[in-house]
Amino acid sequence: MLSTNFTIFLAVVITNLLNFIDRGIIPGASVEFNLFIQEHVQTTTPDVYLGFLQSSFVVGVIFGSLIFGRLSYSQERLFLVSVGCIIWIMSAFFAAISFYSSTFWLLIFARALSGFGEASLQCAIPPWIQDVAPLSQRGMWMSIFYTAIPVGIAIGYAYSSFMATSIGWSWSFILEAIVACPFALYFAIISWHNIRSTTDHRIIEMVDYSHEKATQIEQTDSDDDVNPEYGSPVTSDSPSFLQELKTVL
Q1: How many CA atoms, within 13 angstroms, populate the side-chain half-sphere of residue 133?
Q2: Nearest Cα to 24, choosing from 195, 172, 189?
Q3: How much is the CA Rg of the chain, to the nearest whole Å?
Q4: Burial 10-38, CB ≥16 within 10 A → b, else e
Q5: Is 80 within 8 Å of 68 (Cβ atoms)?
Q6: Per-residue b/e over 64-92, b at no fewer than 16 CB within 10 Å?
Q7: What is the mean pLDDT of residues 105-124?
Q8: What pLDDT, on a 0 to 100 scale, did the predictor assign at position 43?
Q9: Is 216 exposed, middle or buried (0-12, 13-18, 19+ CB in 10 A)?
Q10: Which pTM does this prediction carry?
Q11: Residue 38: left (phi > 0), alpha (psi -120 to 50), or beta?
């Protein structure tokens, strides 16, 4: 079980690294983004609109944290991560499309959607680590998970700068989305397996409980259905409630 959980944890760390690489794309290619803004927004203060991109991302994180944070207490956490990854991948493709469609406001929407999707990972994974990590290794797992923040942003700066000056900043989003797709699928498969296992376990518990209650009812009926005068059971042609219950079960 530890090896399975550790494999999931490695996938989580890589996904978190991708998230923070994404955060470094706009600051790492700020000159290219400013040119895009000047061309398509018709403004002399592109830095203001560049700030809007970062602000929209933060707004997305805020709303995503409110929703995913609440759901992480009642839903399968890896399922929430898979949903967040899918949203995040969609946002990366929308950001790339904004470049080819010359639509700044689509880029704003894409950045907000990116923050919303990323919030699933930040809300669901810390409690997941607390649940599955060995007690003596919880601190190490948590530190590795959060190490992706500075490392990912640093890689994102260099990655974005290189991509923007070679084939265009849109490909920064496209490539990271392609790399993230297998991880989203992996989390979806793992969460589906966990949900099915939990459901099967609950069904077994319900069946066991029903059989236990049926046995108690049978014993009660056998004690009650005795003729007090002759000491013999009272018979009836119609099936009893217990017989019908056994048939259903």
Answers
A1: 19
A2: 172
A3: 28
A4: ebbbbbbbbbbbbbbbbbbbbebbbebbe
A5: yes
A6: bbeebbebbeeebbbbbbbbbbbbbbebb
A7: 96
A8: 83
A9: exposed
A10: 0.77
A11: alpha
